[in-house]
Amino acid sequence: MTDARDVEVDSGGARTLRVVLVDDHRLFRAGVRAEIGERVDIVGEAGDVDEAIAVIHHQRPHVVLLDVHLPGGGGRAVLDGCTGDLPDVRFLALSVSDAADDVIGVVRGGARGYVTKAISADDLVDAVRRVADGDAVFSPRLAGFVLDAFSTGTVADHAEDALDSLSPREREVMRLIARGYTYREVAKDLVLSVKTVETHVSAVLRKLQLSNRHELAKWAAARHLV
Amino acid sequence: MDHPTSLPRRATRARRGRVLGGVCQGIADHLRWPVQAVRAAFLLAVLLGGFGLVLYAAYWAWLPIDDSDGSDTGTPTEGRDLAGVLGLGALAVGVVLLLSARGIEVTGSWFVPLLLVAIGVAVLWRQSDDSRRAELLADVGASARATTQTAVRRNIPRIVLGFALVLLGVLGVLASQGDLVASLRGLAAALLALAGLGLVLLPFVLGWWRTLAAERRARIRSEERAEIAAQVHDSVLQTLTLIQRSAHDPDEVTRLARTEERALRKWLYAPVGDPGATLVAALEAEIADVEAAYACVVELVHVGDVARDDRVDALVAAAREAVVNAAKHAGGAVSVYVECGEAGVEVFVRDRGLGFDPDAVPDDRLGLRESVHARMARVGGSARVRSEPGSGTEVSLALPAPLGVRSWT
Fold first, then answer.
1. B61-97 pLDDT tens trace
2. Is there a single domain that holds both residue A72 and residue A147?
3. Is B304–A151 a contact, with Cβ atoms under 8 angstroms apart?
4. Which of A195, B122, B330, B338 could be a cystine partner for B302, CB 3.0 to 4.6 Å?
5. Residue B392, by phi and psi: left (phi above 0), alpha (psi -120 to 50) or beta?
6. CA distance A80 to chain B (A)
7. Domain final residue pick, A114, A134, A154
8. Same structural domain for residues A39 and A149?
9. Could you give the ipTM of this predicted complex?
10. Quick check: helix, strand or coil at residue A21?
């Protein structure tokens, strides 16, 4: 970790996360800053792809809140411009879009989660913390999409197909998240530790990013994401 | 052909029953003569000195196309009429040959070449007629360019045939006037001159073509923009005005914004197929209703979908009741999750309210008991309420697939 990424420690003992906001709507950035600016350190903002790549390289934040739709190539272009050089920077996609192909694009590009802009400030701070810790953040909608893409009840026949299907446990976790449960509630319901739930969710994220399942490949191809 | 009698009748070129340009058919319609008589007259005029050709070409150029009765050019009568015209032509040629044999010269030696030129020109003109028509029809919309291009491509054999006929005819005329070699030499010179002229004019033509294409693109863009502007004006701007007026009432503002968001999404990501024909579509409509009535936000996530029937409608009604309960008693965000699998359909409605003890609900609270439990039981499904004080409420509805249906999705 470089000097620029030194972790400050606040009075509560938790580290203060450095966050960069990327969204082409200035009003939205101002709103997010007002809502979570006291709890995380917003070290930079950007309104388009080139600006975002420059700010992220300069600031090397813990987490980038990334809008899916951006002038100059979209959130996907920012991911492509950063993930190679900066493996430690984590991305959380933020969008009003309900379209599955928008979501799959940024997640396959390397984002560690997807939340809609209607998310509450508390939930957003939680999501940022979770992403900074290397966990995945699944909104109900993303979970529903994953279940949709991995449905059709196919069971892995061979070892190499493991990427293309969800384990029964992962499916249960996804269903509960789709029903609006928090990770803590999921853990309680399935009698697991929160850490185990996080492990399952991260495993699903990996499958989502790496799987060559027909549905995923189709969406990716349609958007020139392959 | 029946024309409205109040209007002065104009001669037109008929699309129906035409063989070449529809001139004869049009004149026959106009004069109310039998079409074969008109055709015979034209053919005779053609053979006796070629005046008919000039006349026909002039009519073709000046008469407007009659579009009043359908646009199908390939009517079944065409083939029969063509045969009729060929028969008439053969008859006319026979008469001319007979006259020639008697030593009466009715046609010059240029007659056959000229006929070739005429046919070639006819073929070419007919082509431009059709492609212009296709262009006019496809003028609006992004497909215009593609349509025109396919029209041109489809017509290439015709264009080649037309040019070949005209060239052959011109050569024939030249040959009939002097010796063929000299005329070929003259033709070569003419072609060279044409090629030179083409080279000189090429940049201008290209520039003109590009300008035309750019103009067309700009027009399509501005039409799209106008459509979007109209939509935005009717929806977003109106809603923004309403929001400004009710700025003092947060609930009303939320409701307006949510309703507008829903309408806009529907317009942007319009679903294909019949709206309201599936479980999810019906649920979306019900949820929109509840959101508008209770100023809350309901997030619907679904995996799969099924067609509506009486049982599904009962499920939708029960789900609506559950959502209304959540909106009324819990407030805040409500999550609805629908999963359609081979075994059946499950719907989960979850809120983040205070929760309650389901066993402590008094019997007179009809909502859950009658609207949800009884409704689901009647169609062979089940309902379950899970709630603990402090952690919200979840209503689960399950509807098994109908008997004998292996895969319901």
1. 777 776 555 444 444 444 455 666 666 667 767 766 6
2. no
3. yes
4. B338
5. left
6. 27
7. A134
8. no
9. 0.77
10. strand
